[in-house]
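Page 37, continued from 36.
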């Protein structure tokens, strides 16, 4: 029989099992896709969903006497995606039985609705990077259908309105996706699990891309085993138009995270994260020839922390390299380092408060898709540059989840990020307020 403490621990593992996913200064979970691919393929464990279901089985009758009907509904709606819960719970409740068939909720077609209100204000105050404000609303609605246990399809629309924009909507984009799932792998075609779901650190991939290019299209592949997790994707960002001489823009990325320590047997986890991002801008037979651009970014690092998520340390080495036929940037090669120390001030079932101390140092570093704060050159503006970048940040993040009903959740994310540029002796800051709602278990974005 569960105690009250154990009851809430079960819910905690369900809802926050993926908190260890943070591959950046902050855990950008509010921007991540809530479908089964997120936590299954980004957690540090190697447990598959199928193995997880067999490892931990819940007796519905016993659980009913301890957990409310609403709580069980939450568990049912989230369990499809959280292999992390199953692995961690197995350590404590390996003898629990389950009478509910996994297929009842994992392969059920249905509709979903989502909404994100965002406000991010960057007050950087530099001549080369004064900052920018993002303030608006995103809506998405659509359905997901399972053709069988391996193949599913999603179809919907995405609407964004940037407050103050004279055009409405600011963005109107289709969502269409085919996904094939095997035991340890996923293949996605169409709308990708993009942006923050790539889990690249912010100097390489800016999470503000969630506002500037919220939907990515292309191909994507995920796989994992006991030794590593791997993701690769190609994002076709812009189609070449010959008459107007618009170039094609393509990005290719991959992440490989090695797991040298079996976290199932130790109180800590250790990850060796690596990533590579290629940005290409070109196209043949344009009416007016344009310069070809091809640039590389890569990282290698180490990440470690305790499995109960009290503290986490990570450090990354970064590099950039422009291999274009003619140099398009102020700097051809660059490098840098980013180090983060995260302390979780509160780690409760529906609420997390964390403090992240960061130090960044780089020389001639550039990334076409990275956050401008970290770059020696602004994208598209080679004359706006600062050869060296060195600053410290103290980031505060408050996250809260509120259950609205069966398969309905509200997410709140508040951030404050003071920044100190060491060489310039300049203070700057950034703030963010995000409110996200999801209705339905088959989320399409």
């Amino acid at each position: 029989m569960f105690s009250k403490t154990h009851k809430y621990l079960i819910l905690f593992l369900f809802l926050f099992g993926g908190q260890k996913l943070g591959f950046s200064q902050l855990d950008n979970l509010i921007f991540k896709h809530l479908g089964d691919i997120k936590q299954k393929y980004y957690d540090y464990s190697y447990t598959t969903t199928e193995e997880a279901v067999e490892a931990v089985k819940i007796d519905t009758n016993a659980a009913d006497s301890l957990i409310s009907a609403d709580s069980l509904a939450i568990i049912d709606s989230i369990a499809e995606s959280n292999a992390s819960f199953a692995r961690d719970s197995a350590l404590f409740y390996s003898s629990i039985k389950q009478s509910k068939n996994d297929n009842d909720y994992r392969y059920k077609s249905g509709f979903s609705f989502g909404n994100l209100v965002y406000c991010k204000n960057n007050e950087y105050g530099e001549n080369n990077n004064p900052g920018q404000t993002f303030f608006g609303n995103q809506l998405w609605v659509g359905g997901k259908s399972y053709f069988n246990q391996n193949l599913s399809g999603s179809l919907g629309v995405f609407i964004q309105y940037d407050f103050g924009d004279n055009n409405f909507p600011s963005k109107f984009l289709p969502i269409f996706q085919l996904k094939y799932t095997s035991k340890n792998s996923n293949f996605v075609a169409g709308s990708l699990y993009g942006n923050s779901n790539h889990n690249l650190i912010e100097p390489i991939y800016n999470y503000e891309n969630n506002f500037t290019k919220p939907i990515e299209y292309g191909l994507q592949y995920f796989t994992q085993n006991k030794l590593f997790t791997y993701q690769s994707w190609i994002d076709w960002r812009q189609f070449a138009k010959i008459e107007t001489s618009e170039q094609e823009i393509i990005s290719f990325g991959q992440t490989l995270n090695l797991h040298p320590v079996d976290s199932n047997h130790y109180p800590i986890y250790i990850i060796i994260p690596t990533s590579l991002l290629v940005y290409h801008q070109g196209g043949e037979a344009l009416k007016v020839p344009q310069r070809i651009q091809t640039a590389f970014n890569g990282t290698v690092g180490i990440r470690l922390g305790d499995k109960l998520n009290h503290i986490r340390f990570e450090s990354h080495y970064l590099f950039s390299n422009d291999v274009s036929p003619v140099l398009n940037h102020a700097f051809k090669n660059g490098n840098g380092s980013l180090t983060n120390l995260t302390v979780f001030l509160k780690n409760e079932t529906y609420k997390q408060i964390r403090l992240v101390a960061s130090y960044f140092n780089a020389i001639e570093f550039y990334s076409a898709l990275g956050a401008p704060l970290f770059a020696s050159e602004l994208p598209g503006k080679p004359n706006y540059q600062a050869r060296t970048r060195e600053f410290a940040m103290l980031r505060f993040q408050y996250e809260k989840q509120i259950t609205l009903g069966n398969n309905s959740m509200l997410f709140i994310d508040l951030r404050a990020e003071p920044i100190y540029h060491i060489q310039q002796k300049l203070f700057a800051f950034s703030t963010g307020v995000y409110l996200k709602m999801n209705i339905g278990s088959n989320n399409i974005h």
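DSSP finds eight helices and 18 strands in the chain. Flag for discussion at group meeting. The chain has one domain: 109-439.
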